[in-house]
Design a protein that fits this description.
Chain lengths: 336, 336
DNA sequence: AACGCCCTTGTAATCGATTGCTCACCGTGG
DNA sequence: CCACGGTGAGCAATCGATTACAAGGGCGTT
């Protein structure tokens, strides 16, 4: 059933039907009403691909995340989708699973569907394959790592703020040996968190000794492994700050296995504030980086770029703060 | 840049370009090579909407879940998407957040984009709005609750099997007072789990007393609330079986707050086996219902229906088992 | 009464592919 | 030498919308 059918039954031309459907005010209300009646009766729904073809606008945004099964992302997907729907957009979701091949395939698929913009939430891996998109002038939004080009936006995250709060919180609780478990070395955002930790420690005259910087990979398993190493040290750290919440959950798990009580024997702080953080035992003190804010900003960045016809030559920047959220996984250092 | 441009530069007709792109064997290899060269040089990518328009096939499947932020679903999304990509399909994801209005809107959007099939993973809520889809002969796949109609598949879940294993496991550990925390009353799959529990208890001569059936809602908070009630009873249950893992996590959390040690003071069993279940403290014994299997079956059901021209009049049925996975949240009943 | 303008509606081109049908060309067999 | 079949390429219709432009009708003005 197409627009012609409607036109025939309503006794008007397809142009009029199209105008009625798109609520163009110049159509005679009488006619419009007749058209709508037929549309309702037949349950006509316009074909988006036909529309997209002639208008040149797909009304689709791409969303590339590194792993949808990482609890950090579903919230982003949810908010991004909600916002998109509000503006009449659809989203094309793709999970790269940290694989450049898959990233490339995703980009290809998105170009085939003629996305009008893409949000890249991989936090700094494999952006090289994206030149196909920039070549085509597709608006992009990155977190921190986008190049300064027209139609490329960046959401700058203030990692230092939240991490500094976390470090000072631990210091206030008399912790001196504070360990940090990093994320994957290749991940820019993980490196930024690490630097923020080192700087925050320096600021208050504490040493971020190399042996207190353990290597993690932003998974629970990685957190467990790193924690095992830390717990084997002669002088065990009394507090652990983690590059993300999953890592912190791993630490908590290993602490449990080693009969360390939280928070009395060990304080743990996470990063991200995934929803789950408030439900673990004990509820996790963590640095919040609002996923819903991030998603909302990303969407708006794309929308702005799509509607702008002369883009800023260096792209646009947005900011997102981070803040410590106190729960129950931190306490006075043991023996103090 | 379109197919005409390629045709012009390669000195052939658009028909030949189209045939070369689609690897139709009748084109002269010489010509095909020439066409491919131009395509590579210009970075031409065919326009999917144009293709979809003429072929009448969007190569999009819809996937409706109740809440993407529920950790049960991301794994499904991941596997569904992977499989789809393998077969050259795209997926349109939608999260209803248990709201019939949003479900209706999703369906509308999917019809606008002319999806070729829809997987409905809401486990039994609000399927009424789906008649727009069945009217249009769009293949559907449900979990348990789909009507018996052509082009409607059902994945039947054997809840009883896994739940019986769980109940017998607890009974073997000498638990007698075994509580069950249900899911939302309106959710068919939750009701099925409840019935399976009652039946399993009866089978081994234990009573599923009404006061041991607590009302939950498949969220952590719901689990906490239900657990609080159960813990206030004069004769506290020694084991709790939960309608899903989130509920179980809530119970563990409340147990912790009430200084109940797991598993020595209380045994807890979940349902679903979300990935997180192995990472909580202690690792959760739970009934596995494989999310990746579920997603794979759902995709295949749709694919089968799309390719079949004379569908089975009563739809097709698929089966999925459930099985208990032993971890460390269960132990001998206290005092035994 | 005639002219012209404005407002609404319709005709037809267009978006970018696919594909049925026609046609040209080649080789083969009578 | 001609007819015929087979093969591969091109022309043009088509999918379902939007929209530039043309056309027609009504009304005000002179």
């Amino acid at each position: 059933m197409d627009i012609k059918e409607i036109a025939r039954r309503a006794g008007v031309s397809t142009a009029t039907v199209s105008r009625a459907v798109n609520r163009i005010p110049t159509v005679d209300p009488k006619l419009a009403k007749r058209v709508w009646k037929v549309i309702d009766e037949l349950g006509y729904v316009p074909n988006t691909q036909a529309r997209a073809l002639v208008s040149g606008r797909s009304r689709i945004f791409g969303l590339i995340v590194s792993e949808i099964t990482n609890p950090f992302f579903p919230e982003i997907v949810q908010v991004f989708e909600n916002t998109a729907v509000q503006y009449g957009y659809e989203i094309m979701l793709s999970s790269t699973v940290h694989d450049p091949k898959r990233m490339e395939l995703s980009v290809r698929r998105m170009i085939e569907r003629r996305v009008e913009g893409v949000a890249i939430m991989t936090f700094g891996m494999e952006e090289s394959v994206l030149e196909h998109l920039t070549d085509r002038n597709v608006p992009l939004v990155f977190v921190d790592v986008g190049p300064a080009r027209p139609r490329v936006s960046n959401i700058r995250i203030d990692y230092l703020r939240g991490i500094r709060q976390a470090v000072q919180h631990l210091a206030a609780l008399r912790h001196k040996r504070i360990a940090f478990i990093t994320g994957p070395t290749g991940l820019k955002s993980a490196m930024a968190r690490r630097s923020a930790f080192i700087q925050s420690m320096k600021e208050i005259g504490l040493e971020a000794a190399p042996e207190l910087l353990a290597q993690g990979d932003h998974t629970v398993e990685g957190g467990m492994l790193a924690a095992e190493k830390l717990f084997k040290m002669r002088l065990r750290p009394t507090a652990v700050l983690c590059s993300n919440d999953l890592t912190a959950i791993g630490v908590m798990r290993t602490a449990f296995e080693n009969d360390l009580r939280l928070p009395s024997d060990l304080s743990v702080v996470g990063f991200d504030d995934i929803r789950l953080a408030q439900f673990v035992v004990p509820p996790l003190t963590t640095v919040q980086m609002s996923q819903s804010e991030l998603a909302r900003i990303a969407f708006e960045a794309l929308l702005n770029d799509v509607e702008r016809d002369t883009p800023a030559p260096e792209g646009t920047e947005y900011r997102l703060e981070t803040n410590l959220v106190l729960r129950n996984s931190t306490a006075l250092a043991p023996g103090k």
